[in-house]
Design goal:
With about 280 residues, the chain is of the alpha/beta class. It has 10 helices and 12 strands. Bound molecules: NADP nicotinamide-adenine-dinucleotide phosphate.
């Protein structure tokens, strides 16, 4: 299969580059391929491409809040242009999206039938990207995942590992934000399964059953035997950040079992698997 992978230098993209070696893979990312550059997508998506996997995004939630027009260009206009190009050339589009499309106030996990209502610019831009993909490319999969982590990645897990290794540190982690911590390997499993499956539409692909930031950090501390002191706190006790965070965006999937696609493992299993493969992360 000839696959165009965008965002190939990102957390998920790097994993997919290793994972999809059995395919004819073309990859695109900054700085060589700025997908916002007019005309570039039309040169990359041609009749020879069977599948486009869009893992390119502006994922810095606070930067999106400060630069909403940039967020719109990357998280909404790129998928829109990819969707148009895929339709023109008969390619399938697998577009990766996020739990941040939800308001986070439902006090239960969100499934694919729940209505998006993003509370920040990142979520709004990703929501707009989903809408464009849905309306412009019939042969699409929108795969929402959450709280991604990867070896050499960025975000919550590396921050906890860095701080936790300082024996003199006290690491404060909020216990009132919940989500679905998910390794890139889990998303890689799903995308690999999707390549051999005709599914079209919306999927939630995240580990279950959900955790608070503190619960996830506590498991990280235990697995890596981190020497720092870990204490829980409330979001209101932490310094304010530019972008509001949705409180509880745990994801579950109704569509995966109906489609006969494999359900992701629990977040504890995924984290242990990650630890076994990357004890020095
Ligand atoms: N990270 C998470 O916790 C999380 C959670 C849920 C869903 N997701 C979704 O999962 C997908 C992958 O996330 P990730 O964590 O792998 O993101 P990532 O590490 O930030 O990777 C995204 C990649 O896209 C690139 N990119 C940005 N603008 C581009 C442009 N104009 N042209 C070409 N490439 C561009 C980025 O380059 P630069 O780094 O140079 O900007 C980066 O290499 C995204 O759709 C994201 O919304 C992520």
């Amino acid at each position: 299969m000839r696959i165009l992978l965008t965002g190939s230098a990102g957390q998920l993209g790097r994993h997919l580059c290793h994972r999809l070696t059995g395919h004819d893979l073309c990859s695109a990312d900054l700085p060589g391929h700025d997908l916002c550059r007019p005309g570039l997508i039309d040169t990359l998506v041609t009749d020879t491409i069977d599948v486009v996997i869009n893992a390119a995004a502006l994922t810095d939630v606070d930067r999106c809040e400060r630069e909403p027009e940039l967020a719109q260009r990357i998280n909404a206009d790129i998928p829109r242009d990819l969707a148009r190009a895929c339709t023109r050339h008969g390619a399938r589009l697998i577009h990766v999206s996020t739990d941040h499309v939800f308001a986070g106030d439902a006090q239960r996990p969100y499934d694919e039938d729940d209505a998006p209502a993003p509370v920040n610019a990142y979520g709004q831009s990703k929501c707009a990207g989903e809408t464009a993909v849905r309306s412009l490319c019939a042969n699409h999969v929108i795969l929402r995942t959450a709280w991604l982590y990867a070896a050499g990645g960025h975000g919550f897990l590396p921050a906890i590992l860095r701080q936790g290794r300082d024996a003199n540190a006290t690491v404060r982690v909020v216990d009132d934000q919940s989500g679905s911590p998910t390794s890139v390997a889990v998303v890689g499993d799903l995308i690999t399964a999707l390549l051999d499956h005709p599914f079209r539409g919306l999927l939630h692909g995240a580990c279950t059953p959900g955790a608070t930031r503190f619960e996830f950090a506590r498991e990280v501390f235990a697995l890596w035997s981190l020497p720092a002191q870990l204490i829980s706190c409330r979001t209101a006790e932490m310094p304010p950040r530019p972008a509001p965070r949705p409180t509880d965006t745990r994801l579950i999937s109704r569509h995966l079992p109906i489609a006969g696609l494999p359900s992701p493992v629990t977040w504890r299993e995924a984290l242990r698997h990650f630890y076994n493969h990357h004890p020095d992360a």
